[in-house]
Design brief:
about 0% strand, single chain, mainly alpha, 5 helices, flat
Length: about 120
């Protein structure tokens, strides 16, 4: 996949849905049903420069990595997937980095709540 240029137009929701359906169809049978249960809700993303400045990109990537690794292990064990990662299953490295990632997310949420108070949300 190539990186989009600044003049690239974002794909429509219809195209995103079509790509999702086509991708799911290519998955092996045991993974198709869990893939159809994934829900995405993206309303708006901050510019990349802001995300990088807040370290959110790295925090999100690490949190996602831990969650997806956990779910991959569940699929391999033929268990239903969930988002609960038991702390005892994490290494000290992962625990430390997750604490840091959650602190970054908490800080960003706090900053956003001051900039966009709940009274502005419709």
């Amino acid at each position: 996949m190539t990186n989009p240029t600044p003049d690239t137009i974002a794909p429509s929701l219809a195209l995103i849905e079509q790509l999702a359906h086509e991708s799911i169809a290519t998955l092996p049978e045991p993974w198709r049903l869990p893939a159809t249960q994934v829900v995405l809700r993206i309303e708006d993303f901050a510019p990349d420069e802001m995300l990088e400045a807040m370290d959110l990109h790295d925090a999100f990537e690490f949190i996602s990595y831990v969650r997806l690794r956990h779910q991959a292990a569940q699929v391999r064990a033929d268990r239903e997937t969930d988002n609960f990662v038991a702390p005892d299953d994490l290494s000290s490295f992962e625990k430390r980095h997750l604490r840091e990632a959650f602190a970054i997310v908490r800080s960003a949420q706090s900053s956003l709540s001051h900039r966009y108070p709940a009274t502005y949300i419709s």
